[in-house]
Specification:
Blueprint (H helix, E strand, L loop, with lengths): L17 H19 L9 E4 L5 E4 L2 H7 L5 H16 L4 H20 L4 H23 L8 H12 L8 H14 L2 E2 L5 E2 L44 E4 L20 H23 L4 E4 L5 H7 L1
Parallel strand pairs: 5-6
Antiparallel strand pairs: 1-2, 3-4
Length: 304
């Protein structure tokens, strides 16, 4: 059986070779040069103006690159690299962009000398493993051996390029206390600090200095009614995933009523079913109720 060969029609031009490689490296170098002057303790701030005239002044690499309208595909990779670094670590966004651009620049020179890209990649990976090994053996210091003052200074350094740099003394201590509060030891005896165990709740209308560390679990929600107490101790919390509103028939269910006097009994039974649910919660000893659904006004009166 013979098959007819069909040409896949893809719109656009396909380019390859040293010229294209050099263009990609040049684009990455241009992005790195933009943020290079903002690196370090004497780094300069950048003034960015967007399309509608809003002005942003910052020396945070991730913020600068996020506000730039980068169109070159290779340069966009560096922008995504900075965003990933900011999301995973929270600092070092400018450094990773500059290092990546320099590695690309060096790799481009090696390709010019007829070294295959696969060999260059293998060499970079080997260098990465050796660098990590050296840092772990020679430079890394266990957190337990550092005093709190050293940890606070590390936090201040990371905050120096952020919007809260003016209040770094206040927030650095809070950050160190929060991280130490989630310290845990796994089954293998390794000490871990699960950063995802720390949540941030934002409240409008107050100063940043009003921030505080709550050693517990916080929900950004309010009381269902003003008459409810502000503090309950000891609390026995019932977490619900169903409504505390009047019970209603499901969609598609029809009730035929021949006697109008039965309507009031039906409405009363709907309210009684909700009261029975509430009574079971109270009988179980719950004095705080968290629900992902609604609460009827009648239920609020009954729960007080």
């Amino acid at each position: 059986m013979a098959y007819s060969a069909q040409t896949l029609d893809i719109s656009g031009d396909r380019q390859s070779g040293q010229d294209v490689r050099t263009q990609n490296v040049t684009a990455c170098q241009a992005v790195a040069n933009i943020v290079k002057s903002s690196l370090g303790p004497v780094g300069l701030d950048k003034m960015l103006v967007d399309d509608i005239g809003d002005v942003t002044i910052t020396n945070d690499g991730a913020t600068i690159l996020r506000m730039l309208e980068v169109e070159h595909p290779a340069a966009k990779v560096l922008v995504e690299l900075a965003e990933l670094q900011d999301r995973e670590v929270g600092d070092g966004t400018t450094s990773v962009v500059i290092i990546a651009a320099e590695l690309l620049k060096g790799a481009n020179e090696l390709v010019r000398h007829k070294i295959h890209p696969t060999s260059i990649i293998s060499g970079y990976r080997l260098a990465m493993r050796e660098a990590c090994k050296y840092v772990e053996e020679k430079l890394a210091v266990k957190v337990d051996k550092l005093g709190k003052d050293s940890l606070v200074n590390c936090a201040k350094t990371s905050m120096s390029s952020k919007l809260i740099a003016d209040d770094s003394d206040f927030f650095a201590n809070m950050v160190v206390e929060a991280v130490q509060a989630v310290k845990m030891t796994n089954v293998r005896g390794e000490i871990k600090y699960p950063i995802k165990g720390i949540n941030l709740l934002k409240a409008h209308g107050k100063s940043a200095k009003d921030s505080y560390l709550l050693k517990g679990y916080a929900l950004n929600t309010g009381r269902a009614a003003q008459g409810m107490p502000l503090r309950v101790a000891p609390a026995r919390i019932a977490c619900l995933d169903f409504n505390l509103q009047k019970t209603k028939m499901q969609m598609g269910v029809q009730v035929l009523v021949t006697d109008p006097r039965e309507l009031e009994r039906i409405r009363q039974r709907e309210a009684d079913m909700t009261k029975e649910r509430i009574q079971k919660l109270l009988s179980a000893g719950a004095n705080v109720i968290l629900t992902s659904k609604g609460i009827d006004d009648m239920a609020l009166k009954a729960s007080r």
